[in-house]
Design goal:
Keywords: Signal
Strand content: 25-35%
């Protein structure tokens, strides 16, 4: 992946609108840095850049289309980023022509990128991985790595949880840091949509670990789902705000 890759900024401006803007109109450059920015130390309670990137799983040098959405969450706050209508938008024909049948997601912050996760997988079932949790590691406030939490507790560690980590060639990655996630089928997403129009939308949680620029230990990663009991996970997820419109960010204190 290179800075010269042709890209787009995805902006979910309304429940039924997915607007693409040519990448150069956006202020952030490749790697989720401000113009002229560097990966310097940040402290707890300070906002910093985090970007979510949608793309095809296999990046091709200089030709890949991608969509980047930027946020400035507070360091060490357990944060939910929720994207309204992602299922309907990212399974539409127009977006399928842009990315292909499979849609991957990765997280960037201050020049550092995670591995990819599939949000949408086109197979005999049609799978959607709608809940992901990213863990951003800081060393004295400098971002040194971004990994993903194990999502299996969300489906009681059943056969609905499968390996879901990919490199930028689109190949499944099974090395250190690879994790699994729960999926819903297209049939389930369609059924759920009758009760909730935002069924199967992407919810991405951001947690933090390591130390900030002042040496304070970050603790929000202790709230990630893999460390909670099955009852706690279900209670937390069921208690989330419903009917969020567009792109939203919610921070837990």
């Amino acid at each position: 992946m290179s800075a010269s890759s042709r890209g787009y900024l995805a902006a979910f401006l309304s429940p039924r609108t997915l607007l693409f803007c040519i990448f150069q109109c956006f202020t952030l450059v490749y790697g989720c840095l401000p113009p002229g920015g560097v990966n310097s130390g940040v402290t707890q309670a300070q906002g910093t850049y985090v970007c979510i990137v949608f793309s095809a799983p296999a990046w091709q040098e200089g030709t890949s289309n991608f969509s980047r959405v930027a946020f400035t969450p507070t360091v060490d706050r357990f944060t939910r980023l929720q994207f309204s209508d992602t299922f309907s938008n990212l399974t539409s024909q127009g977006v399928a022509n842009l990315y292909g049948p499979n849609v991957a997601v990765h997280v960037e912050s201050m020049g550092v990128a995670s591995f990819q996760k599939l949000y949408r997988q086109e197979d005999s079932l049609g799978r959607t991985f709608s809940v992901l949790t990213a863990i951003i590691n800081l060393d004295r406030g400098v971002v040194t790595g971004i990994t993903f939490d194990n999502g299996c507790p969300l489906c009681d560690n059943s056969d609905r949880c499968v390996e879901n980590t990919y490199d930028f060639t689109g190949e499944r990655y099974t090395g250190v840091g690879a994790t699994s996630d729960c999926f819903l089928t297209d049939a389930e997403c369609a059924l759920n949509a009758q009760a909730d129009r935002n069924a199967c939308q992407l919810s991405l949680y951001i947690t933090w670990t390591g130390t900030d620029a002042q040496g304070n230990f970050l603790t929000s990663s202790s709230r990630r789902f893999s460390l909670l009991s099955a009852f706690s996970v279900k209670s937390f997820v069921n208690g989330l705000v419903k009917g969020v419109q567009g792109v939203s960010m919610r921070e837990e204190k």
